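#onboarding

Welcome to the new folks! Below is a worked example of what a typical request in this channel looks like: someone posts a single protein sequence, and someone else replies with the predicted structure as tokens. Don't worry about understanding the tokens yet, we'll cover that in week two.

Example request:
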Amino acid sequence: MLIEGRNPILESLVAKKDISEILVKKGIVPDEKVERIIGMAKKRGIRVKYVDKKFLDRKSNTGIHQGMIAYRANESKANLKDLIANANHDLFIIYVREAQNEYNIGSIMRTAEAVGADAVILPPKIKLSTLMVRSAMGASEHINIINESLFNAIKLCSKNAVKTVGIEVTGDKYYFEADLTGSVMMIIGGEDRSLSDTITSKLDEVVKIPLKGKVNSLNMSIAASVVMYEKLKQSL
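Example response:
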């Protein structure tokens, strides 16, 4: 897959991801971050190739490559069963049930890493993409990204004392009234599709965020961030 932008590429290198080549725009201004990327690449024997901006523009999936694109091997090694089995601390897992906007998923990954979450789980049909990594600003390189069906994830968590908490407009209580201490898997619905009754009936809790204005919902990444930081607050 392609990693685009200076910060995502740097974080990918820091996380020791399998990068085979980095394309760099000819005449790029060698600031501190660029020099660090090129220096780390050379130390690891990663090929650095200087190309025209037009070549990078054609390669880019995001249109925001900042003069650098890296080729990184696809990785899908993490799985929920092993994560739970090997945990020696309370787990915090984010399940993104559905999202049409890959930037929203990337934003959720960025916040998840910032609050110290262990993993972001996506349904099997949604794979980590260049757009997600770009939106996450490289945070996706430091957190487990897992593909697992929602019902399997709920089943595994329920069997292993991981509390399952859904975020929904019609939740039973406000998010700050819920006990989010201990191991938690937070389930986030889609941008225009709520969690079904079949799903919520299998969860330990369903929480909501208070809204005072005329709009009755929040962007999914914003809603997720609000509740993720409440989880962090309760864990301090």
